[in-house]
Specification:
Layout lengths: L37 E3 L5 E3 L3 E3 L13 E3 L9 H4 L24 E4 L8 E4 L5 H4 L9 E5 L5 E3 L1 H4 L6 E8 L8 E7 L3 E5 L5 E3 L1 H4 L11 E3 L8 E4 L22 E4 L2 E4 L11 E5 L5 E3 L1 H4 L9 E7 L8 E6 L5 E5 L5 E3 L22
Antiparallel strand pairs: 1-2, 3-4, 5-6, 6-7, 7-8, 9-10, 10-11, 11-12, 13-14, 14-17, 15-16, 17-18, 19-20, 20-21, 21-22
Length: 366
């Protein structure tokens, strides 16, 4: 693909399936303190010397059992407050998380939307039942413009990309080859395709382009699967969800729906719910797309719970293949046949299951 075809994938986190890490193997209490002296590493740049590098969270608490990572060459520091990013809040339903719609995170994208040579940040936001029914103001996504001095300014409203819908995923790609990155946002409900107007603003052209879909879409991705020089669009479907009759945590009619998290009953995953099909949209080169999912072999008509996807040449044959991360179901690996179709190699490749032969709750892919 041409270099200007930038593609960035969302990462979605399903909070209702906590994973317990293995116990930390190294007790650092008796270890000498790590040196704070910085030194150049083999790849250039600066690294922290010494045996250990502290890893702390936003509240200055250790995020590992001992508070250190052995031989860590890089230390990350939270500078969101200084950068002007800490005032924005991600909203995803209520703290009780009674419904699965409230349990999934949202995507983030790094892009140079104004082509000034500095990366900007787009943050997708969720929503609430009250906002979806018109009883409250919907939360908005953020587009943080890089001020070139380590700080950012939220220009989402000015740029026209607030996406006042229940958002989940985002993909970046120059779908019309004009040299400016565009945005595709996947939502519960209609999705958006924000076309970059090249003046700091965007216009939602999803209806005209034919890529709105509906119900619940997850992490989308751009990629030129047929090698025609135009970015195509893949959108995984998650759960077919009815807001008027939502399954509650612990519902007798929905299997596997009740989990305990920090003493509270929460919806623990999609098992027992109807899934949404995936969609591959072929770029027609005139600002519109055509859904070719079924004819190319990637439709997922059974409705697996797709959360994220990526185009990547996994077998080094020069053609982009397609990988889909599914929640609580086998993952998909589609090998590109080079003739506009794909072969499902999910099982034979070993990508469908984990090392124990079980499906996993795959939440993101990069």
């Amino acid at each position: 693909m041409p270099g200007k075809h930038a593609c960035l994938l969302p990462v979605l986190l399903l909070l209702s399936v906590p994973v317990s890490p293995e116990p930390h193997q190294h007790n650092t209490r008796d270890q000498p303190p790590a040196s704070s002296q910085a030194s150049a590493n083999d790849q250039g740049g600066m690294a922290t010397s010494g045996a250990h590098a502290a890893v702390l969270d936003a509240e200055n608490r250790p995020i590992t059992a001992g508070g250190f990572v052995d031989n860590g060459p890089i230390v990350f520091k939270n500078v969101a407050q200084q950068a002007g990013l800490a005032t924005w809040r991600h909203i995803m339903g209520t703290p009780e998380k009674r419904y699965i719609l409230e349990t999934v995170g949202s995507g983030v994208a790094l892009l140079d939307y104004d082509n000034d040579g500095w990366l900007d940040i787009y943050l997708v936001n969720g929503s609430t039942y009250e906002a979806e029914t018109g009883k409250a103001k919907p939360p908005h996504a953020a587009l943080f413009r890089n001020n070139h001095d380590g700080t950012f300014t939220d220009v989402a409203e000015k740029a026209g990309v607030t996406n006042d819908r229940w958002g989940f995923g985002v993909a970046v790609g120059d779908y019309d080859n004009d040299g400016w990155p565009d945005l595709y946002i996947s939502n519960f409900g209609k999705n958006r395709l924000y076309h970059n107007n090249r003046d700091g603003t965007f216009t939602d052209v999803a209806e005209t382009a034919g890529v709105t879909l509906g119900n619940w879409s997850a992490g989308p991705t751009f990629g030129d699967y047929d090698g025609d020089g135009r970015l195509d669009l893949f959108v995984p479907g998650y759960v077919h969800y009815d807001m008027n009759h939502p399954p509650e945590a612990g519902s007798a009619t929905v299997a596997f729906s009740s989990c305990q998290f920090r003493g509270a009953k929460v919806m623990c995953g999609p098992r027992g719910l109807k899934g949404e099909a995936d969609h591959l949209f072929h770029n027609n080169g005139d600002g519109t797309f055509t859904d070719v999912s079924k004819q190319v072999g990637v439709a997922d008509t059974q409705g697996s719970y797709g959360l994220a996807a990526v185009f990547a040449d996994v077998n080094n044959d020069g053609k982009p293949d397609l990988l889909v991360a599914n929640d609580s179901m086998p993952n998909f690996l589609y090998l590109n046949n080079g003739n506009g179709t794909f072969k499902d190699a999910s099982y034979e490749s070993g990508y469908a299951f984990n090392e124990n032969g079980r499906e996993t709750a795959s939440m993101g892919i990069a």
